[in-house]
Every structure is written in C-alpha cells, then in structure tokens.
Design a protein that fits this description.
single chain, alpha/beta, UDP-n-acetylglucosamine1-carboxyvinyl-transferase, Chain, 2 domains, four-stranded mixed β-sheet, binds uridine-diphosphate-N-acetylglucosamine
C-alpha cells in the first residue's frame, strides 16, 4: 500500500510534459494482435493499465519488450484466444481484445471486464455490434465465448456513442469481408488515433472522429511504428491543478483543440490561457464559479475530468452544479472532498457545490482513477497536510504524477505503508 503525503498551499509554477494518451495506447495494443509483423509504439507510458494489457498480450503468446519508452510487440507466435479472468478483471480495456482476437483467431474467450467502479458499464453495444458482424456469442459463467469464420461487413447503428464499442467494432471489422459502417459512432480523438494507426498497418478505415466510421475489410495488415496522441485527460488534470493552486504553468506535448470544452470553462472562471502548437500556458487569477459542468461525449465536457473539475469548483467563488451524465456512480471523490471542508450536496447524478475560500488538509482515499487524481489536486491546493491513500487507482493512468507536481513546486511525496 502506498500513499501521498502532501503539504498543500503552494502555487504551481514551471513546466509539465504530458504522456501519450492512456485511452489511445490501450486500443493500439489490442490492434497489435491483428498482424504477425512487428509493432513499435513510441512514447508508450508505463502506467498500470498498459502493463496489464502487455501481460494480456503475453498470455496470448505475443512477445513484448520495452526499450526505454518504446514498446515492441511481436505477435507472430500468438496462439491463445483466451484472456484470463484475473487480468480481464483488472482493466476494462481488456474488452477491446475481443474484436482483435476474434479477427486474428476466429474465436475469443474473455471474462467480463473490470476497470474503475464508476457505474454499471455494460458491454451490450460491443456484443450486439459484434453479432451484427456475424460473430456467434455465448455468455456463460461470467465468460463470453465468441466464434466466427470471418467477420462480415454490416451497417451498425449504436444506441449511444460508446468509445469502446466503436473501437471494438472497428478492430473486429478491419480484416473482415466487405464494408462496415458504424453510425452514431463516438467521436473521441483516441478513435481517430486508432484509425491512423490501423491505416498505417494497411487498413482502410475512414471517418473516425465523426459520427460515421467506414471500415473496408482488407486481407492482411503489416507491421508499423507509431507515436500515440498526447493524453488530453492528463493535460486537463494539470491545467486544473494550476487553476486550483494559482501560479503559472506551461503544459508541453498537448493538443489544445482536443480540450476545447475544458479551456472554455477555465477561461470562464477567469484563468488566462494561451495555446500555441503543442503547448498550453495557464495562469490562474481569481477563481469565479464555473456555474454548470455537464459531462457528455466528445466534444462535450469529458467525464474523465469531472472529478478534478469538481475539486476546482469547491474553491471557486459562488455556486456550481456538476451533472454526471455518463456514469452512474462517479461521485466517490465527493465524500472525501467534504472531509477536506468542501460544501457539496449530491442528488442523483447532480452535485451542488457552494464554493469555500480554501480546502483543509485531511486523510482521504482514492476510490477510482480520476477521483484519486482530483483528491491529489485538492490536497496540493489545500491548507495544511493531507494524505491520499490507495494510489494504485492513480497509477493506472498517470506516470510520475507526484514527480510532475513536485517539479512544478508542490510539496508531495509517496510513502509505502
Ligand atoms: C472510455 C474511456 C473512459 C471514458 C469513457 C467515456 C477508454 C479505455 N476508456 O470508456 O476513460 O470515461 O470512454 O468518455 O477509452 N455503454 C452502454 N453499453 C455499452 C457500452 C457503453 O450502455 O456496451 C454506455 C456506458 O454505460 C456509458 C456510455 O455508454 O454510459 C459511454 O461509455 P463508453 O464510451 O463505452 O466508455 P468506455 O469505452 O468504457
């Protein structure tokens, strides 16, 4: 067990370099099974979710090797179509393996996936999409068994724009027969990144980043080298940290246009933001309340930044309503923020926040990945000393989180207990 010890109240100043996007890398790792030639992912973050996915690849018979930040995957000897339940339960992205393992072996067996406990997170859209591609699916004893000779192109309308379902269907269709059209597809930038990666492997995917994705099946995919896009959620986390602590921060290796909803809100609360190419500069002034934060699929306000933004709203002048539209139980950070002196009332999927001048140090527990990051920011901004426990949640998505915060002036250290 590890925890952060934080002495809060210092401004953040300096520079932070952003890692490659967790949510881009995970589907790329799944896609690497689609070829028996080598894949090299440059700037691959060694976060726990990536390491778990690498372990799953190992179970399938793929060889993987890190050389610095470059990860090489060689799937030429991959022979196993079963994803062990212990690993599948560790992370939800294991479900992406379904599409690519089916495409590679004509069959797949996987335990129901785990991941952050932030709501029901069904996978019905993944499964109905795969069925539309001709995959026979049996669900029994917590396992999903899939078989198909070759997926067959289909016109698929998603009931809601699920990121994972869109990616899974693309992965299953990319080496299938004929054309697959996914309508009401999710538009997240990580899906466009998957498209770019697959096309570099020789696939024919178009439209990712819009509501209609078209996949024309190809016979074979080849090896590729690729650098995934920067992590917009990590970028947002550090921008919010600067807004909470005051000071001036330069965030490098960012894609400002992928964070328009957050930048708009930060400007609204009176932060000064300047962006140029892959850099975003923020200086924080008086914090006015953001009034309404309502999460929605991209390009709306990202659910993954709801918890950090809620922490920020706690110390803004005036009242804020936060509405979580995507996941049912994504408010686990709120009782912890209340322990730090926040004034919040929750009614269903809405949190009503009355701003206080400052949060106070307390011992808090990370309940999930982004909630844990939010509590760390709250501790860094708070008056006095805090501890943040259960860091394994945070380590799923952030590399060197405390080092980056410390580099910008925060007093934070990790201890083993
Ligand atoms: C992905 C991201 C996660 C982010 C989320 C929403 C990855 C690895 N994870 O998760 O960080 O919080 O997008 O931006 O990329 N749904 C169904 N049935 C399904 C699938 C989803 O009803 O079969 C619902 C979900 O319950 C949720 C909504 O669709 O309400 C969006 O979920 P989805 O986009 O699928 O999220 P993930 O792909 O799991």
């Amino acid at each position: 067990m590890e925890k952060f010890i934080v002495k809060g109240g210092r401004p953040l100043c300096g520079e932070v370099e952003i890692q490659s996007a967790k949510n881009a890398v995970l589907p790329l790792l799944a896609a690497s099974v689609l070829t028996d030639e080598k894949i090299i992912i440059h700037k691959c973050p060694r976060i726990a979710d990536v390491l778990n996915m690498v372990q799953i690849l190992g179970e399938l018979g793929c060889k993987t090797q890190f050389d610095g930040d470059d990860l090489t995957i060689d799937s030429s000897d991959a022979a196993n179509h079963e994803i062990p339940s212990a690993l599948a339960k560790e992370l939800r992205s294991s479900v992406f393996m379904l599409g690519s393992v089916i495409a590679r072996f004509g069959r797949a067996r996987i335990a129901y996936p785990g991941g952050c406990d932030i709501g029901l997170r069904p996978i019905d859209l993944h499964l109905s999409g795969l069925r539309r591609l001709g995959v026979k699916i049996e669900e029994e004893g917590g396992y999903i068994d899939c078989t198909v000779e070759k997926t067959q192109g289909a016109d698929i309308l998603l009931d809601c724009p699920s990121v994972g379902a869109t990616e899974n269907i693309i992965l299953a269709a990319v080496k299938g027969k004929g054309r697959t059209v996914i309508r009401n597809a999710a538009k997240e930038p990580e899906i466009a990144d998957l498209q770019n990666f697959l096309n570099r492997m020789g696939a024919k995917v178009a439209g990712a980043g819009t509501a209609v994705v078209v996949v024309d099946g190809v016979q074979k995919l080849h090896g590729a080298e690729y650098t995934p896009i920067p992590d917009r959620i990590e970028t947002g986390t550090f921008l919010i940290a600067a807004a909470m602590c005051g000071g001036e921060l330069l965030v490098k290796n960012a894609v400002p246009e992928n964070l328009a909803a957050l930048l708009h809100k930060l400007r609204e609360i009176s932060c000064k933001i300047r962006s140029e190419n892959d850099k975003i500069y923020i200086s924080s002034c008086k914090r006015l309340s953001p009034k309404l934060i309502e999460t929605s699929p991209y390009p709306g306000f990202p659910t993954d930044l709801q918890a950090p933004m809620t922490a920020l709203a706690c110390i803004c002048e005036g009242s804020t309503v936060v509405v979580e539209n995507l996941f049912e139980t994504r408010f686990k950070h709120i009782p912890e923020l209340i322990r730090m002196g926040a004034d919040i009332t929750v009614r269903g999927r809405s949190a009503f926040i009355r701003g206080v001048p400052a949060l106070k140090g307390a011992d808090v527990f990370a309940g999930d990945l982004r909630g844990g990051a939010a509590l760390t920011l709250a501790a860094v901004a708070a008056e006095g000393e805090s501890t943040v426990s259960d860091l394994f949640h945070i380590d799923r998505g952030y590399t060197e989180f405390e080092h980056k915060l410390r580099g910008a002036g925060a007093d934070i250290r990790r201890i083993r207990v």
